[in-house]
Amino acid sequence: MGVLDFLEVMSTTRPPTAAALPYDKPFLSIAEQRALLASRGMGVRDSEEADHYLRHEGYYRLSTYFNSFCKHSADGKRLDAFLPESDFHEVVRLYDFDKHLRSILLPALRGVEISVRVAVAHHLGRQDIFAHENPQLLAHSFTHGESTWRGKSWYQVWLDKYNAMLSRDDQEDFVRQFISKYGRRIPIWVAIEVWDFGLLSRFFGGMRFPDQHAVSKLYGVDDPKIFASWLRNFNYVRNVCAHHSRLWNRNITEQPRLVQKQKIHLLRHLTMRGVKAPGARVYATVALVTYVLRMMRQKTPWREAVVKLLESFPQCGGVSLGMMGVPEDWRELELWRSD
Asked: Based on CB atoms within 10 Å of each CB, which residue in 25, 232, 265, 314 is the most buried?
């Protein structure tokens, strides 16, 4: 875990409000796990399928998908009982939908990450080939603003993480060869190959406004503060995907700022639906990635893959596309039509 990751964990960790209870639930075999689900009202039409998923995916991981099929009390508390006609096969369909969603998001986000890295390096490299090591080219709030980590500036925290990544043994061959020949002071167009999405998003956030604007407008965003929030959101979602965590109806804590409806017409539906905190659901991220890829003139089957996936959503039990923020008329939106 890097310094920045540690800070994120510390900033979101809350002290317990009460003494922890001892864990006293027994170990359950695969058959006993299936029996427990059945006792709570979960149908199991295919025991072999259920056993396969319980054995290879795990009860605890699947439990976040079971929750969508649970009954609730009058005050909204989730009960240990399933809705009528709930079936393990439908849980599997929802689980596989989510897995597919993550599998198509990862390469799309990787494409955006690489493009923005290059754009930053190309723009700043004109001013100084070692721009990432030149505080004069960065915002004062970034280079002098005190972080929560031992009084260091945010830029120093960033440099610590960058230098730690630079020292890793698994760098690309050309990076290691460059360092071997020229030393650890490498130009920004080589340095970006060391950055992960987190380093990129934080560095962009620490750039001066004119430089941010020069980069963000390449992606059709006139307000760099908005684009900076998109990058943070993309990094958050990328990490969720990389850790194989539930995404489809997740509450996105790193929410992107959404542009006013008249600014970017392809995204205006995100601010016109009257949905509370639309950025808190993954559909907003999917829509923003689609827009950025379009601005990149990226020739990928991304949009077609998203449309096909959304059309395959398992409409069953108490789940719906609306739970991931998808508007009912999504298929009619220009964003999802071919150019």
From this structure: 232
